[in-house]
Amino acid sequence: MSTLQAPAAVVMVRPHHFTSNPETRGDNAFQAQADTNADTISARAIAEFDSAVAALRDAGVTVHVFEDTSRDTPDSVFPNNWFSTHAGGHVAVYPMFAPNRRRERRWDVIEMLKREYRVQDVIDYSGLEQDSLSLEGTGAMVLDHIGRIAYTVKSNRADPVLLERFCTHFNYEPMVFEACDDQGRDVYHTNVLMGIGTDYALICLDMIRDATRRAEVRQRLEESGRSVIDLSAAQIQNFLGNTFELTGHRRVLALSARAAQALTPDQRAVIERSAELLPLSIPTLETAGGSVRCMLAGIHLSPRQRTMQ
């Protein structure tokens, strides 16, 4: 079973003081204000997080959990934005748009990767924040690791010059397009509207403004041999674009319970030909404007072989 697109291990960060981030509310239309007090929100978020970790581990996925006890990093539960890993031993560290999100980067995660996996190099783009440049990892880019394409929505979270630099370093072809929701609001992260599995791709094509570009994106996905599952705007609002295929005992598609309920029977059938659905109930965590994909930083690295002492 190929695991190139569907990693067998992830990094997750347990938030001890979870809240919806006020610094990202301006351009993240998916954020919502919770209707209860901070302690209750925090307790619910931790319970949802721990339940998700248990479900992933039960499915055979390796989960590396890191603790975040800071009150200054409200989005730390979404580590996929500040680093990514790539076959061949490559790691990227990214510049973030919101100042308080820059504090999410932590080098103990990178050191764990070096210790447990074969890491050849770490390319750190984070210093470019000083030039007001950002490229928010696998939120800003949805990567086809097999076809080597970086699908990217134009936004303030994905600087075009930095995208080109990343694609040159990591051997991807950038495919950039404009997208907006059914209210005309710009999409802030590409993984809001699309997710790519091994044999299928979930995408809301109607959100791509330009008809020619929309057809080109569909064509590239189909040329990769994938079934294109076209999502509706309502399904996107239920986070069905924010999914992540993983390899455990078998291939699974990790998605929120809310997203799973939004699937049509035909869409479910296409996915289940390739992967088993793994719904995770995270309604509190979703108030921050991200869902399951954002919580999972995939590890596309080879584990180190442990020698007997």
Question: Can you tell me about this structure?
Answer:
The protein has 309 residues and is of the alpha/beta class. It has a single domain, classed as L-arginine/glycine Amidinotransferase, Chain A (5-stranded Propeller), CATH 3.75.10.10. It is built from nine helices and 15 strands. β9 (194-196) and β10 (200-203) form a beta hairpin. The longest helix is centred in the N-terminal third of the chain and has 21 residues, at 38-58. It is globular, with a radius of gyration of 18 Å.
- What is the overall pLDDT average? 92
Strand content: 15-25%
Strand order of the largest sheet: 2-1-15
What is the radius of gyration? 18 Å
Reported CATH architecture: 5-stranded Propeller
The structural class is alpha/beta
Quote the distance from N terminus to C terminus: 31 Å
* Multimeric organization: single chain
Give the count of helical stretches: 9
What would you say about this model in short?
With 309 residues, this protein is an alpha/beta fold.
Supply the key terms:
about 300 residues; alpha/beta; L-arginine/glycine Amidinotransferase, Chain A; 3-stranded mixed beta sheet; 9 helices; about 20% strand
Blueprint (SSEs and pairs):
Elements: E1 9-15, H1 38-58, E2 62-68, E3 83-86, E4 90-93, H2 107-116, E5 121-124, H3 137-140, E6 141-144, E7 149-153, H4 160-170, E8 173-177, E9 194-196, E10 200-203, H5 211-223, E11 227-230, H6 233-237, E12 244-247, E13 251-256, H7 257-262, H8 265-272, E14 276-280, H9 292-295, E15 297-298
